[in-house]
């Protein structure tokens, strides 16, 4: 027996049938009237009528789908790069390990995992530990030594069995029930099914105490939607190949193309990469409505942080709320005095680490020496803390401003917002570097330029490593292209560098051994 079609699917197929019929009629009319100029105008009117009706059908269909999805609390399933990573795990693991997809809340983990299960397996089952009842949970505690009984009870309790040879069980929000995570060792060894876990580190750390974390667990980190994924959501498949080619050839795109991409990128920066916010944009919502979505996500994060604070006597929620103010500081260095005049690093180190490990923030650490093994020279008491999603930072900044959200967003997109836009750009660069797999480090150093009498402090905004060589990165919020910090760095340390990058808002150029990159190319470093 075939699968039962939904109302939306039936309606879609009926539209397809109408469109095929319309196309056939148009072809017949055109063939019959190919040589009859007299009826040309009437034929073209008929063709236009058919096209208009087709457009109406498609529009109505999209509205129905959209309304039904909204009623069910569903959102569009966007193409995500992590899907290919899951495919790679499935191919290489061949059932020998489970996979844990970890990341901040509301970045689309559950959605992409279910989509993966639908497409890549014969059947699947979701255990959502935010909703599962006591009986399902007890089954993990009581029956791990008898997996035949475990699966029998699980299928009875869920009212569903798994059909096919290639099936998967999803442990969603696994941090809420760590015993399920511990059970992975035995379930993988059993070999009947494959297992995918999703979790937010915002809760995992406190829940893994005294539990055996399985070695049969392969971890994949997931981040908010990057610029390429955002463009995919807009059905734009041409921009990234164009900028990739320009980056590879170190060739400018030209003013017209650069301006167009920069406007799109500024919109991405303002909206951010949270799938719900992107979905709202794609659905035609106003910036005020998009900002409302992001405020709800921020409220969710703040509630989680407040819960962590209550249970651990920490101040993570205070730290998170002050991030926009911290990033407005000179060089964006984190100042504990903004939390409390008597605050000290050792009293807040756990709270800072918690924000970073939960992936709602990106920690950038000072290195005392620019060596290839950056982590060996990390001074964790001197750091910057960026927000995990720049769109959420924009919403935090705008919370207390008097202008309407619509006006503020439009001003940001055209680059005319009366705030420190440098911190927004720097936060975006940190987000893009992190999503591309780079660790976040910066370097602060003293140097006495020739002709001066005392040392001055200089800083490299970001440092990464390519081909076993240091790559310094500077971020400029304007077209200002000074690079003293690069020059003095080389003179002080006699470094051999792979590349030097200045990230700014203008078109690509290569000059004086420095590659000037428009900010949207950061993902290609």
Distance between the termini: 52 Å
* Count of DSSP-assigned helices: 20
Radius of gyration: 27 Å
Number of strands: 14
Largest sheet descriptor: 5 strands, parallel
Q: What's the overall geometry?
A: globular
Poorly predicted runs of 5 or more residues: 1-12, 35-40, 58-62, 69-73
Helix content percent band:
40-55%
> Strand order, biggest sheet?
2-3-4-1-5
Share of β-strand residues: 15-25%
Q: What integer is the average pLDDT?
A: 86
The structural class is: alpha/beta
How would you describe this structure in keywords?
single chain; 525 residues; alpha/beta; 5-stranded parallel β-sheet; 5-stranded mixed β-sheet; 20 helices; disordered N terminus
Structure description:
- With 525 residues, the chain is of the alpha/beta class.
- The model is unreliable at 1-12, 35-40, 58-62 and 69-73 (pLDDT under 50).
- The relative contact order is 0.08.
- The protein is globular.
- The protein has a 5-stranded parallel sheet with strand order 2-3-4-1-5, with helices on both faces. A 5-stranded mixed sheet has the order 10-11-12-14-13. Strands 7-6-8-9 form a 4-stranded mixed sheet.
- It has helices at residues 7-32, 40-71, 82-93, 109-120, 134-142, 147-158, 178-190, 201-207, 227-233, 239-249, 255-271, 275-282, 287-312, 316-321, 323-327, 345-357, 390-398, 405-413, 421-435, 484-493; strands spanning 98-102, 123-128, 167-172, 194-199, 217-221, 361-367, 378-387, 441-447, 456-460, 462-466, 469-475, 501-504, 509-511, 514-518.
- Helix 12 (275-282) packs antiparallel against helix 13 (287-312).
């Amino acid at each position: 027996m075939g699968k039962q079609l939904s109302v939306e699917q039936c309606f879609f197929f009926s539209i397809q049938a109408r469109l095929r019929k319309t196309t056939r009629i148009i072809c017949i009319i055109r063939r019959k009237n190919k040589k009859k100029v007299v009826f040309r105008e009437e034929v073209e009117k008929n063709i236009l009528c058919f096209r208009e009706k087709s457009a109406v059908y498609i529009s109505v269909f999209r509205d129905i789908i959209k309304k039904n999805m909204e009623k069910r609390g569903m959102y569009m399933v966007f193409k995500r790069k992590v899907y290919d990573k899951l495919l790679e795990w499935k191919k290489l693991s061949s059932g020998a390990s489970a996979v844990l997809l970890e990341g901040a809340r509301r970045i689309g983990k559950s959605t992409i995992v279910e989509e993966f299960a639908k497409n890549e397996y014969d059947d699947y089952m979701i255990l959502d530990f935010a909703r599962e009842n006591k009986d399902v949970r007890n089954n993990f505690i009581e029956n791990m030594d008898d997996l035949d009984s475990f699966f029998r009870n699980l299928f009875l309790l869920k009212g569903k069995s798994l059909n096919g040879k290639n099936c998967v069980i999803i442990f969603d929000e696994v941090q809420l029930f760590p015993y399920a995570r511990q059970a992975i060792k035995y379930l993988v060894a059993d070999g009947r099914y494959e297992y995918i876990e999703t979790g937010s580190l915002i809760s995992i750390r406190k829940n893994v105490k005294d539990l055996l974390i399985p070695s049969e667990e392969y971890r994949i980190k997931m981040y908010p939607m990057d610029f390429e994924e955002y463009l995919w959501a807009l059905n734009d498949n041409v921009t990234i190949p164009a900028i990739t080619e320009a980056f590879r050839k170190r060739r400018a795109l030209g003013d017209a193309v650069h301006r167009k991409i920069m406007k799109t990128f500024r919109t991405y920066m303002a909206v951010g990469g949270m799938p719900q916010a992107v979905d709202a944009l794609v659905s035609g919502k106003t910036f005020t409505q998009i900002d409302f979505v992001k405020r709800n996500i921020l409220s969710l994060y703040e509630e989680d942080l407040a819960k962590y604070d209550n249970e651990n006597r920490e101040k993570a929620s205070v730290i998170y709320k002050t991030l926009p103010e911290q990033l407005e500081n000179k060089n964006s260095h984190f100042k504990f005095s903004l939390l409390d005049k008597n605050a000290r690093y050792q009293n807040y180190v756990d709270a800072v680490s918690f924000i970073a490990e939960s992936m709602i923030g990106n920690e950038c650490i000072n290195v005392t020496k620019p060596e290839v093994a950056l982590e060996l020279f990390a001074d964790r008491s001197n750091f910057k803390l960026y927000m995990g999603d720049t769109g959420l930072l924009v919403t935090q900044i705008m919370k207390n401003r008097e202008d309407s959200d619509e006006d503020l967003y439009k001003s940001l997109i055209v680059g005319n917002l009366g705030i420190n836009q440098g911190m927004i750009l720097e936060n975006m660069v940190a987000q893009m570097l992190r999503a591309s797999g780079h660790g976040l480090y910066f370097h602060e150093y003293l140097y006495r330029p020739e002709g001066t009498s005392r040392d001055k402090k200089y800083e490299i905004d970001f440092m990464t490593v390519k081909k076993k060589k240091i790559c310094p990165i500077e971020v400029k919020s304007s077209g200002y292209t000074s690079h003293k910090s690069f020059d003095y760095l080389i003179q002080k340390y006699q470094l051999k560098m792979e590349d030097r990058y200045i990230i700014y808002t203008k078109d690509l150029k290569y000059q004086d051994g420095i590659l000037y990159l428009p900010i949207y190319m950061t993902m290609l470093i």
